[in-house]
Amino acid sequence: MGVTLPAREANLFKSIVKSYETKQYKKGLKAADQILKKFPDHGETLAMKGLTLNCMDRKPEAYDLVRKGLVKDLKSHVCWHVFGLLHRSDREYREAIKCYRNALRSDPDNIQILRDLSLLQIQMRDLGGFVQTRCQLLTLKPNHRNNWIGFAIAQHLNDNRATSVQILEAYEGTLEEDHPPESERYEHSEMLLYKAMLQEESGDFERAIQELDRKQAKIVDTLAWKEQRASLLLGLKRLGEAEAAYRKLLDVNPDNYAYYVGLQRCLGVEEEAEGSYSEGNTAKLMVLYEELREKYPRSAAAKRIPLDFLQGEVFAEALDRYVRPFLRKGVPSLFSDLRPLYNQPGKAEIMERVFTRLETSLRASGRFPKLDSLSSPLPPPAPSAPSSSTSCCTSSPPLPSSSSTSPPSSKAGSRRRRRRRDDDDESDVDAVRASGDHDDEVVEEEEEEEEEDGEIDDDQEPPSTLMWMLFLLAQHHDRRERFDKALEMIDRAIAHTPTVIDLYLIKGRILKHAGDPVAAAALADEARSMDLADRFLNSECVKRMLKADQVEAAETTAALFTKDGDQHNNLFDMQCMWYELASGDSHLRQGNFGKALKKYLAVEKHYQDMEEDQFDFHTYCLRKMTLRAYVKMLRMADRLHSHKFFCRAAAGAVRCYLKVFDKPPSATAEEADAATMQSMTSAERKKARRQKAKGERAKKLEEERAAKEEEAAAAAAAAAASAKGAGGGAKKGGGGASQGAKPVDTDPDGEKLLQVPDLLAEASKYLRLLQDHADSSFETHLLAYEVAVRKRKLLLALRGIKKMRRIQPHNPDGHRCLIGFFHLVDGLPVEDVNPVVMDVVTAERKEMLGAKSLVDCNEAFLDEHSGSLSHRAVVAEMMLLLSPEKKEMALKLVLDSPSGGGNLAGGFDDADVSSRWRLDQCVAVHRLIQDSFKDGEAAARWRERCIAHYPYSLYFSGPKSSKVVGLPVVAGVENVAGGGGVGRGGEGGGGVQKEDSSSPCAAQNNTLTVSSSSTAPGIVATENGSGSTT
Question: Taking the complete model, does pTM exceed 0.85, yes or no?
Fold first, then answer.
């Protein structure tokens, strides 16, 4: 039993609690010391002193004091509560819950402890316990609104929606009949909409819509009321009323795609497959969208959606109408908008016909063709300057027209800057479609622009329209893997207007797809140098450099947009996951497993922080009554680890551990140095010893300097904590006070991350996260198989194979695992396998293979997929495994693979995607021949075949790759936009950025010269290739 304090000391103890709550930690420590002088064994004072020290970033002392306080007063609810707060500050939520439950044994009705317990229960998704705790809080304090709402949400999350509605109705019964006060109108409105959402989720549509109609006057968010009512009418099959509701919503926002989907469902039109409708439904949609297009002439959605379901010549006409305004205005993201159409069979050919017709007409007459001439045969293409047959890096001469000397107007460039999106991320287009946001200023500008366009006599298009048409055609041919044609188009566009930055980005992207990432990085760096204040260009350049494994150059370039002296921490604090993933992938390709793992685990840490960040919203959302958003946030957090960035990071971490497990370091650094010294002469050994001693001295000085900096940072943090004794507390009752001090990275290369006792156990930790949150991913179960096989867990490996076959039954990696697994089992000694496990494996083998042998199963797989390169390669690999004497036959099987439709001359058709060769497949087969078959002559023959398909490939040293012909020579001017030229959007530099006189690529012989024949007006080409404005 704890000591009872006298009145004076009791008041001092209350002041400790108050000082903690007001973050006056120095004052609280002083009061605690005064009590402990007279009562050194007072447990609650010891605990409160420990909690105060925890807030001052003195955690070891804090834990010692709190544990000592618990020993002195084991039954004190204060001591247990404080111990729980310490665990909560360290994110040890399960331990914190145990402490809170112990505290409630001594004081079961403590409101504060119950509230803290409920926060941890919802954070850990202990929904059963959350319901009980919220019910107890409501019973103890029924006059508090948050207790009613919290209990309703608890029942909702526990799938008791009807009970949740009853709780809200009981709460409404405690309110007055008239409207709530003006200050509470929004909160009451959100509660009503939340109740309607509950009724809709429970299927009680009729009651929900009656509630919405009855309480309409009390609902502040009128748009949400209209959307929910329309959804409920659709659910009730009152299609006429629902159609009217959705049409009213379209009047409000005609660019919201969700409204169009709802309107289609009102008409009974359902999508049978992606972009596929029945003939009758297609006719309905054509009539509907013709009406909507006339009613909302400024709506892009009303024009874009029909492209998904129209076919044939009707699709061609609609596409023609759709792209013309975007080409006229110069919208670089047009191809991103059209990219999903390539997934529909037959549309790629129609798109090419439409684009070619438009380009031919613009080049010949400067006008778009008449729309009624779409069905006429194509005119013969006009002669144009082809790109070099030996180099991808030279530009075509300027087009013989006045347009070649007319850059885009600054207003058109301003529109491009406003609408620019990353073409690599299709989700940006979807987000724009779904949001449907309006900008009155943009609408006004577009009205002025249309008036300007209307002043053009006789439908004459601006000179820049041809350039944007070539830009679109280049991306079209790139999508169909016609890289020569794509480069010809983009070179013509650059010759037309050399100052448009997007052209260089797309040319780099084409070369990246063609297999030359180094040339792509050089072009991206050139584009970046044309507008040094553009962060998007900087990010694109960094991506290309990392793809080319130029990590140091990428880090230097990325640092240009970070804080001075703290580039690494700044990128980490910004949660720049695309950079960390790309950097990790590059390190993994180069065999730097420690650095790669460090990047992947940084991404995993970001997701931990995101999960932690929801903690603050458990109280905030109840207080502000943002209930619908709160429930959506909780559901999003439950899916957080299924995001593609996390899955890529976790899979990369598992691969790093597997790589190190398969090839552990053969010797320590000392052993390697000793072996090297033995092979040296006496003079060489003396020189090596001197260099080693010099390096050790430099390393020692560096360590001393780092230690001094760390001590100085710690001293500064302690001084700041002391100075902030009256304030400077911690987040959530226990964060540190040294917010300004950045931690020193003691393992920059990630070597310590790999020095773990059990690599496979670490891999399993991240694998479990993938299995819990990405169970539908083929890659998850492939990695599960790889880990299980190395751990000799046969049943786990078998489970991975079964799940792979269920997700993708014809995947070649699944076949490799199947054959390899049973071949492994056949070679295991009987005494090494548990008989029960062997019985299960035997039974599953009969189910998977039937009566076939592994050789017969392998041959059957070949017969089924004889036209696919990747499948033939896997069959050959398994043939070599099962029958090493058939090496020549297996090798012939790979070398004689049919080329499919993937040749560069004609590109590929939508129908032969499965049989065409992809560059990554060609590279994988080449490595298979080298590493597994160990046949250099066969590898050389395979390389020659691949060069015919991918002459730009850097891996195969193709005749058009930068390894052979050199890096691109850009027919443009450096730093045009950065120096006030036209550039990206024609706005000039306009920003200040740290920039060296030489770009990162310049250090790698990336000399970017200027072609005087294609110099833009207003630019003078100097002798050394630099540009200056006149």
Answer: no
